[in-house]
Amino acid sequence: MKDHDPYQKVLSRDLIKDKYEVLIIGAGFGGILTAISLRKKGFENILVVDSAGDFGGTWYWNRYPGAQCDIESYIYLPLLEEVGFIPKEKYSFGPEILEYIKLLASKYSLYKNALFHTEVNSIEFDEDRSLWNVSTNRDDLIKAQYVCSSIGLLNKPKLPGVKGLDKFSGHCFHTSRWDYSYTGGSSNGSLNKLKDKKVAIIGTGATAVQCIPHLAETSKELFVFQRTPSSIDIRGNQDTDINWIKGLDPGWHKERRDNFNILVSGGHQEKDLVNDGWTSIMKKLGAVLSDPSNIDEYKDLSSKELDELIQYADFEKMEEIRNRVDAIVEEGSTAEKLKPYYRQFCKRPCFHDQYLQAFNKKNVSLVDTNGKGIEEIDPRGVMFNGEIFEVDCIIFATGFEVGTDYSRRAECSIKGKNNITLEEKWSSGVKTLHGFQTEGFPNLFFIGQIQGGITANNTHLLTEQADHISYLIHYANKIGAKTAEITKDAENNWVEEMKNSALDNEDFLSSCTPGYYNDEGKSEINGLFSLQYGGGPVKFFETLEKWRKNKFFQDVNFK
Ligand code: NAP
């Protein structure tokens, strides 16, 4: 299956041979927020480059029917108060988020220096000139004093490694490259060209959960190939009460974001402002998980008793989810197969009010692979358990690469001082200070989920990171430094801190079903959490703030 942009035509353009103060790789929220933060500090000469045809990042690519953000729009969408934007609903759908991202790009004049449908192939640091030489797949030769790489967490679509993948004679695509010319319809559904088509969808993760109700609505026949059932909690979307949002006191956005972040990190708050599925799970589990010594009724319990308490809270929550399946799915054996049998945080929780209902339709069949996954693709369709399911179209809702080499996911060769590549530098493990910089690669910043405090509300993390990076770049400029490079000691200290704070969750994750949280169940886990700071996002944000106030000049060589 060839990767291409199904949404926008690639236009021809002239080569770029200019020099920029800052080059940003990635036009998603991370890239945009960094550019905006720099703009506010007076940087004009910024170039944003992306392989997509516009701003949007994950929301550019993931336009499948029903795409929606599970994080409340009032905290997910950044800069709401500043821009005066009011989301239509508590949980925004993809098109609204994409429009908002484009609005931000226009408002902060980012379109004037943006290169789309352009992949950065290599960046090499020129020590004599203290500049990065940047080459692209469009033969541009760009120079930049600073490079900020914001490639996103889930940027590289993944297909199942099964036999016959390229042998299928029908139509196929990945959910992040939805082919509306084949299915008809739009992100809102109405896939009317599927009325006479037999369709297979592989995977039942957060993406599949959202598009399956639309496929079920119009496909002549739909086969859902499940490896592991997702846990599907209540969505409960609501229209925004305009009077409520307009009546909020200034500063409400930060307060709401912080409140959510603290609650989902297992901390305590007098009020639960967002009050949704995420905070309810964490109120059940998080308080016990995070710091039981703070809670009167738990503080005298032994670790065994605490563990039992956590397991019980987890079991109660999962029973609630399983009971919901029974209440909605009419056919008994289908309901049994749709019940998640693992602990809550083995997999990402999902929220939907039409997914389980789709299995009551006569044209929808669940093919449960009992945790094994599909076996083979045949020219006629999908094979499982010796049976061939003949279909016209296969849709891969099989997710994205997580935990593979950074350079591989960035599809870019990164060469720092002394011609050392990033792959070489990180061959025995990722080494950074706060996830932003690595020694030997001056003026290069990473934005995203590397050795930082991951949180359910990703744009909150990206906002903090963007502000931190722009602070450093601005400081370097102010003192007339051409380069900012972290010291070896600073890097070693953070790597040590990463080890000391590492979540002791390897036993838990290895007991889980395979998925991207545990690197598909491999023995040495290299999944999502192994790259994160175990102290959590609240402590991470505090660490950054303190560091900016007290310590950065010791950890960074400005020259
Ligand atoms: P994903 O969560 O990685 O799900 C991939 C699915 O493919 C899983 O169900 C997986 O099975 C299945 N799979 C993989 N190989 C298979 C095989 N050989 N045979 C059968 N099934 C196979 O990917 P995603 O659904 O695209 O979501 C990725 C992430 O994006 C989410 O976790 C979330 O962070 C984000 N996202 C968020 C939203 C939202 O806010 N609602 C929506 C979409 C995506 P297993 O279940 O056994 O692993």
Task: Write a short abstract of this structure.
The chain is of the alpha/beta class and 559 residues long. It contains 20 helices and 20 strands.
Labels describing this entry:
559 residues; alpha/beta; eight-stranded mixed sheet; 15% strand; globular; binds NADP nicotinamide-adenine-dinucleotide phosphate
What does this structure look like?
This protein has helices spanning 29-40, 58-61, 73-76, 80-83, 94-107, 180-183, 206-218, 242-246, 252-264, 277-290, 303-328, 332-337, 355-358, 406-410, 422-425, 458-478, 488-501, 506-510, 536-550, 552-555, and strands at residues 19-25, 46-49, 114-115, 120-126, 131-136, 141-149, 171-174, 198-202, 221-226, 232-233, 350-351, 364-368, 376-378, 381-384, 387-390, 393-396, 413-415, 444-446, 484-486, 556-558. It has 559 residues and is of the alpha/beta class. Strands 1, 2, 3, 4, 5, 6, 17 and 18 form an eight-stranded mixed sheet that branches. A five-stranded parallel sheet has the order 7-16-8-9-12, with helices on one face. A three-stranded antiparallel sheet has the order 13-14-15, with no helix packed on it. β5 and β6 (141-149) form a beta hairpin. α1 (29-40) runs parallel beside α16 (458-478), α10 packs antiparallel against α11 and α16 (458-478) packs parallel to α19. NADP nicotinamide-adenine-dinucleotide phosphate binds at residues 68-70, 154, 160, 162, 202-208, 210, 225, 227-228, 348, 369, 373-374, 397-400, 513-516.
